[in-house]
Amino acid sequence: MDDNVVPQQIIKLLQDKSQDKKQLGCQQLKQLVQSYAQSGKELLIKQIIETLKIKFTSSSQLYIKRQGMFALQTVAEILVKEYPQLAERCVKDLTQPILECLNDKEDKVRQYAVECLLQLTKIMKTMILLNFNEIFDYQLGRSAEQENQIVQAMFLLDQQLKNQVQIAVQEKFLDPGKLCYFNLNSFMIQLQSKLKTRVTYVRQFLLGWIKFLNQCHNNDLYIYFPMILEGIFMMLGESNKEVRNGADLQANEFLKQVEIKVNLDQRVNEQIIEILLKICQMKGNQNNYAKLNSLLWIFEYLRVFQQELEEEQKGKLGLQHSPSHVRSEEYLRSNTSPIQKNQMQQYLGGFESPIRKTILNSLSQILGPILILLSHEEEEIRKAAQKTNELLLKVMERVKNQSIEFINIVPTIKEMLTDKKSNTAESALIWMKHLLEIYSESLFPTIEDILTKLIDKLADSESAIVQNIMDVLANISMHSQYFEIVIDKILIMLHKIQEQSEKKGDLIFKKLCSLLNPQKVYFTITAKLLEMYSNNDVIFISNTVQILTNLLISEKELQNLRNILRNLKHEKDEKQRQHNQEIFETLYKTFCYNSMSVITLSLLSEEYELAYKIIISFSEVEVNECILSEIAQLINVLETPVFIFLRLQLLEYDSHPFLMKCLFGLMMLLPQGSAFNTLRQRLKNVSNTQIQSLQQDKNMETEEFLDISKLLSQFREIRLQCINQESKQKDQR
After folding, report:
1. Cα(88)–Cα(128) distance, rounded to whole angstroms?
2. Of the candidates 252, 289, 245, 294, the residue with the CA atom closest to the CA atom of residue 378
3. DSSP letter assigned to residue 320
4. Distance between CA atoms of 317 and 649, rounded to whole angstroms?
5. What interhelical angle do 480-496 and 518-533 show, nearest 10?
6. Where would you tag: which of 229, 272, 672, 678 has the fewest CB atoms within 10 A of its CB?
């Protein structure tokens, strides 16, 4: 740089404290700049500015610094007024020395710098925005300024800059071909990085500018939401109330733009959804309000899509006249961005809507965080997540017949099935049920893994979730190739948790019978019990048969099976009678592993002679407390509504002699106690004459079709097996 570019005489005049000499110095400086500008010597003008920086604004003396700032204003004034194009290229050079003074330790220097920058803004007007990003950066650095005069000057500077931005934007709007000094895209990139701050006063300053820009651009910042939304949401956890409320208001203002502009740009939509989901998954209670707002935003996107689907389904005006589409048309007419116009015209021309693509492409990413938040500790977040989840299910229901695959959400649901929080797992089960109903064949390759996760969940879950798990298992079981696999896995699971098997088994078997064919369920369970455990755990078989027996005599879903057994001896049709007989014999073999159950089955089927002989056979073995307890339970069962027919048959003693013998036999087996007294009370009105007739009329029973001797022999064999195996099992334990 030429040290003599600014004559020493001018420098001395500018440094003089005399006002007249300073003015003379400024006049000569102006003439010097004009002479160089007229000759097109841009480099020399920049050297003049650099000289003023070195000789003046970088000085340690306050007075000299201030004189340098005045000199820079003089240069700016003449350039803007007479050589605007040259002035444009010198904006950074003119503002940089003053900006550096903003970091000075002296309050007065900073004050003069802000005031000088304010004057430069007034002189250069919108042109100063060519270096706006750097000016903004320095402003941000001084936003915590405490000195009153500096604060006031900073406020005035901020207002002046906003005025210039607004003028530049309006000029561009009125004349799209005109050069705009304000680069919104560049500024938004800078703003995005600044929004990461956690400093309260900086956040306040940034919110002020975001609010201003949104108003200045007529609420048209949607395409920039991916840059600024996360920063605003993070302010929702700010301890400072003013910042928190400001961020909340701004987020709500932005939310209003969603319905209008979701069909402008799929990429922007997806970026926003990604940010919202990121916030939903953040840790820490300080982010709870941000999570809640993210859920509200996600819900709004889904709501707009749902609205579009409803309009499409109605078919009255078609997709092109859905509310979001109409608003987008209105927006297009007033928007000046060629890129956005092109995108919007493509959509209006019949392309699949961006919001549709966004939601369907993002469904698997949305579902996971929503399911997790269903179990959040905050009730308000749980409710918002529930509301969003319900809307997601409605969306899936509406598009299920439109050749849209949701298989990509299966991994998410499978992962959520193992969640330890009940609300999350329960909702994942509901999703799995819906998927199985719609895409059962597509899910076949993953069924084994799904089954494993479901069964594991079944073992750990409370009754409320068991119901939902069984809904899903029943859906899987409807496909013949998986029915027996499901039963196998359920029995294996119950075998592992035998301490809970009675309560859980009751819930599981009851639900299976309500959702599937009860007869098939019973046949498969009884057959599998023998196949899997007859050689190693007769106690488990006995306990499971007890559960099946309790359900058989109490549940409405099993009424048809009860009726088949009741009509075993009364069926007229030969073919049906043989079928009923096969049913009895199939159940009988497994029920023999539980004394109470096999007698109950026989009594329910009116096989009184068989029941009597089984009872009499107890004399052949040592009757332990377990058997006596089972018989006592049986007496209580006989008092249930299902056995009203049996109690009435006591009046027909001559037609059912073995029934009387059964009941007396049971009473003789029981020690005196409550069960003994209950049965004795029932039988006490039977006269001695009636009892005697039991010995006289031996052939009054209905014709017998079963091979009672074979069945009795089978019972004895199984009972002996049980006695031996129970002894071994007890020794092992």
Report:
1. 8
2. 289
3. G
4. 71
5. 60
6. 672
Task: Report the distance separating Cα 175 and Cα 546, nearest Å.
Answer: 87
Q: Which two tokens stand for residue 439?
A: 């895409």
The band of 440, judged by pLDDT with boundaries at 50, 70 and 90, is low
- 58 contact partners, CB below 8 Å, separation of at least 6: 97, 100
CA geometry: angle at 660 spanning 658 and 666, to 5°? 100
How far is residue 715's CA from residue 231's CA, in Å, rounded to a whole number?
Answer: 76
What 3-state DSSP class applies to 322? coil
Token readout for 48 is 């003049």
CA nearest to 589, candidates 436, 500, 710, 687: 710
Cβ-contact 364, 409 below 8 angstroms: yes
Q: What is the pLDDT of residues 83-113, one digit of tens each?
A: 999 999 999 999 999 999 999 999 999 999 9
- Closest to 682 in 3D by CA, of 706, 656, 716, 646: 646
pTM of the model: 0.75
Interaxial angle between packed helices 288-314 and 354-373, expressed in degrees from 0 to 180 and rounded to the nearest 10: 140
The confidence score (pLDDT) of residue 690 equals: 57
Please report how the helices 574-591 and 538-552 are oriented relative to each other, as an axis angle in degrees rounded to 10.
130
Q: Which pLDDT value is given to residue 432?
A: 84
Q: How far apart are CA 224 and CA 261, in angstroms?
A: 12
Contact between 194 and 206 (Cβ < 8 Å) = yes
- Joined together, the tokens standing for residue 421 give 């929080």
The token pair that represents 563 in the structure block: 């009726």
